[in-house]
């Protein structure tokens, strides 16, 4: 996941970047950072923590200048170091640059090996450092040409923003796997952000999505960003953004996330093969299961009810439960609406099942609270393959759908029935006008260049 | 508001108290505290901040003993001092005691004046300090009799737990205005808490509500708490708990909060005098407006939609917006679902209107996002009077319904129509088997003793 | 110990109070606090920590007004609660007051018992709370008369400053045990402080010491403070202030601390009964042993050398040493000058020996570093009795001079010889024109009223 | 400045490194860090702040392994980034390495330019990053040979410790400008540290100084470190370590710092050209001026007195003084002993004068406190040239001795007389058996290779 933002030609660049990052906090809570450029010098502040913790007025006073890029980092294995926060800054032959990146470079290790064999050093674990090296090593004279050359050696799903002392270069990979949109700020200048939900908070108007394979160049000489088509586009946007990642009020490549999720629920209901029981209510696993549950309810005419409450005060550290309170952690986050569900047959909707442990705990919690039956419905297909395109899925061995059939999973999570959305239905729910990136579901690892 | 909890006869008393307070965090986020008793000594830790911030393992190690009381403090005017956190501890003639309190004593100033005239000092602004003084000044020999005598001089809405070195005394006022329930811990001992939602997290079974005018005494001599009816009960539970305060999964005096809120929405729909327009969707103001909106939608058959997203990352301090971003604060918390509501006629449901400023901002936000019409519906009656029974309402001059008629408010908040739930309909929604405390709506300040 | 300060009639009252407390930080590092008065309202900020940690600009912005009192708290057993920081604030019959106190009330428990028997409550462990109760309970009409009446029931060593909404009352006990001086601020108004070293930092001119038994009243009606002799003076200032507590650049009751310490060293040298050995150098235990060591060296003509270095970076918490590093703690604070002392005979000067453990560690450290002989000299008499007059000495059982003879102590700390300053020599060193409080040395607990 | 430490073959490696860094805190307070190696993996923790703040037990639990290197960073201009803390870690062709560095590379910019021209990137402002690049780019197969090759391209004053997954390489430049000593830990293994004062705290025995131009290699195959003479030694140790930097209890290259400082004071007294006045006392500017002042006093027979007190509670941030309190900052750190110096003629000894502003403030402070005359003596020669060998001196334009003659400086700081130690006398004071690095005094920038 992760979120990136770029602000160009606005005197409040870093402030606007921080507000946009705040709006995209759901894409990464581990660390955050912003680089601004002023008078030919780049200033960077980055740290672990939430946007609202890292960027106070003191920080923003340091980040002067009329251009800024920013990043929210999702918690990933091993990357606990503060050095693994972005933007990544470097001095190189042409001066200074700073980079933010959302995505995943699948040839990271090969590139690293080649680079280190030629004497390069890596100070972080981030693939973003690869790109900086490739740019610095290019023999081209202009930064735009260096970036092009670097990207020619880069395979993966990516959205980059490279900021030099006076310019910004925005690149989306040829498949358009991760989202990236362009907007115009009412207070002047431009914004590029992973999700359009950031535009509302900073008073920006959506212009268009950045095109697959496109490089946008913001420079002092132009008012409008220059557009260069770097690679021939082969559009395959990530379906998982619609299923789970993006905020429901965002529009990704022309499709509203909330609406597509509702469609997933509706389609799930329409094609539910297992309707022998009579469910008393449709219950979402909050918050991300809500739109699909509303869709399921409206299609099936079964009443929608808030059978599970989500507690938003859960912090990072808390009282360790005693031995007898094993299931406390999930219950501190989710509480069953006891009086409502007692003796009732529930149709529970979640957005996805990854390892199965949370689903199992939810079913147990609901049954302990008195639910007569729990029919589990998943508004996405079975996740059988790890994602290498920027989503933080676990190893294949940990994916329950890799190890078990649907019936075995149903038994494992102790549900009374279990249904998934089929791959075809997922495509239809988002809109069957496109060829989506579905590698987690179908194992089609199509990125080769 | 505020929340209180008592744990009796369990070796993890303070830990369980902290978990219960965590479950009741919605009743107060300003400060929190716990007193435990061990070996005839009371230990207290209290501080500003959330339960998950104040009570880590280090704190719990200090709070040893098999009995504990705890408190969450709601943010109230002037009470910014750490001294205004509870429990309030005191040494007095018979030894040590610690007290937690939820409610409001309406003869606070008279009692204070009498006490100070007789030489007492007050180190805090809390009315809880009154009770401690009255207990300490009593000429009775037993603590239970001192408490009785003190309560005889106390007028107001209250739930108290007084903890001595080896006993706990639990009192609910004769009107039962504020909620208080008794449960049995599966790991041993008893719990008393403001809301039953705390019982689930600590694995406790609900026994019964504490009765209006009842004192429960937990002491080493008894397994079951001793019950004494201190005052003749005149049951008038607070309607506002159902409207707004309590968590939807709590049952208060035998009525589930979520269900009563749904009923409010249904009744509102049934009796909506203003139905000339054709609303495209029912949209709740999240989170507390959701159950009523579901009720309205199910009754009216207008589709329920999540037209407003709530951002839960809003912290305490954040980047000050620039001059041009005046409305940023409400928008950082609530975001309109632009694509969904564009060109639509919305029926927006909120739980209440107090000052009117937030409602006005919500209407503006929705219209700016493209809503064609915004019809505002309030799942409670007009708030015309301040509450003196423990709810933190502002002065009467700030209450918009004190200053304006319904039509004027509709104009002020720029809604296309506005309807409230009538007082009668509110009573029916909760259940017309009882005489509720409705002073905010009808000005009936009935507490006289 | 502890330090108190009062600033009257200066628009920067709280700021000046914080600077004065900073200058007196050596008298107490556990907690600090300031109360200011403005528009008939008293504001208080107090917390654990150093003055420079608690009082930043944000804190001082809250503490508005042209009068302020402040306090530094010394670490004392059991008083770990934030409630035990001063000033102590209370509302009482006549309004608001805030008190700071340096000293110790020896009839604290009797007064508490009488007060609690009459229904009073105590929320802290501090004897300062006694005084507030006594003031509040007085039947007098004017605060000054209430304070008088309260002091009539108070036995002990004390300096108080009581601040009401518009006045300050400064009291020093009839014996003048603890120091207290009056100064005039060049920027306007007056200062009262425990030590004159505070005057330099705030640009104040020393006027005179507050007299034993005197009450100074600062009020809006007068420019000069009004002086009332409350009690007949029986002047017996504490000798320990000169020996150890006070900062060397302070003048206490007309005598400079540094000079008296030098005199102690000189007298110690003059009357040293044990001179058979030939010491190579006089080495102080830094920092408080330095002036006496200089005196000893100048009198004995033995060269003064910095044989022990003090590390000032020692913080509150640090790496726990492993099992093998038992003596690390004293060595992290004090380091021997190995090259200098190797093979040398040292005459080590410390200000006092309390429990003997530190002295033992110092001797061992010096011998481990190669010292041939360590002759220990103490610039004060043997401490055989606990102090009840405001100095934080341990119980009598822990005092090594209570349990052992001089020779036994010498053996215990493994010194080659040991000498103390006699009581008579101590008196002479400070100036034999006065009757000093010497209870730690001679057990004369003279305070009876 | 800065301090470095290496611990080899001890199970408490990181703990011992932290204690050693604590002992060397005076060499750098801005940031600190430690890298440990275990199971072929290097773990690093570094942050801004003091050693006692950064390294608590939680940090040390992460830093497992039986070898560790550490660093204290001195505050230098521009290096406010956390990225500029050391050790610097990198993955490169042969695996992982981590480096600490004390000193300054004078061909830093040339090397950087060459490296960036060849495509290298620099993520920090530290010259240490140069060395890592050079090591990584070497075509040699063994790390020791790569380090050699890298050092062949490196000009400057340096002490490095390079830690790989299982070895440590310690290098001191051919001039031995910065100190570095080798010790044997009583608990097993070896220590290398900038100053011997670190040895005492970790219970290590001094073996010898690392030789100029020597590389020590600690590897699993050997018990004793392997020694390789990398460069022909041209011994020129830094005189400033003796004058100001090092702790007085350290021995540098066989000479005790305290003793050399005393000698400087004695020599200053012996050759003082200006003795017409009769000084009443010798007063050091604490703490670093103390040994020289003792030397001056013993030679001149003028009494040594503590005329200036140093306050050690000065934290990083504090109350801003009001407009009228301009000189507060120096006075919060240093207080004049008013009673002692009033009407007296003082001979004040400081270790050096850099910009002159502090000296001017000290003279003013003493005269304001009543000193009749202030004769300023400096225990080092005039600083006329900036240091490029690892000492943080300002630009030449800011050096007062670059801009003014001795008489002009005397007038500027308002002293009654001013004398410096001559360069020859400085050499003699340390020991005229060596050719010292004296570039700050004589401008002889001798480092060429």
UniProtKB/TrEMBL annotation, chains A, B, C, D:
UniProt cross-references to SUPFAM superfamilies, sorted A to Z: N-terminal nucleophile aminohydrolases (Ntn hydrolases), PRTase-like
Protein residues bound to Mg(2+): 288, 350-351
Keyword flag Phosphoprotein: no
Glutamine amidotransferase type-2 domain location: 2-221
Membrane-spanning ranges: none
Pathway info: Purine metabolism; IMP biosynthesis via de novo pathway; N(1)-(5-phospho-D-ribosyl)glycinamide from 5-phospho-alpha-D-ribose 1-diphosphate: step 1/2
UniProt catalytic activity: 5-phospho-beta-D-ribosylamine + L-glutamate + diphosphate = 5-phospho-alpha-D-ribose 1-diphosphate + L-glutamine + H2O
Keyword annotations: Glutamine amidotransferase, Glycosyltransferase, Magnesium, Metal-binding, Purine biosynthesis, Transferase
EC supergroup of this enzyme: transferase
Cofactor: Mg(2+)
Note accompanying the cofactor annotation: Binds 1 Mg(2+) ion per subunit.
InterPro entries linked: GATase_2_dom, Ntn_hydrolases_N, PRTase-like, PRTase_dom, PurF, PurF_N
Entry's EC annotation: 2.4.2.14
Active site: 2
Highest rank taxon of the organism: Bacteria
Annotated HAMAP family: PurF
Summary of the function given for this chain in its UniProt record: Catalyzes the formation of phosphoribosylamine from phosphoribosylpyrophosphate (PRPP) and glutamine.
Family label: In the C-terminal section; belongs to the purine/pyrimidine phosphoribosyltransferase family.
Protein name in the entry: Amidophosphoribosyltransferase
Organism this protein belongs to: Malaciobacter canalis
Organism taxonomic ancestry: Bacteria, Pseudomonadati, Campylobacterota, Epsilonproteobacteria, Campylobacterales
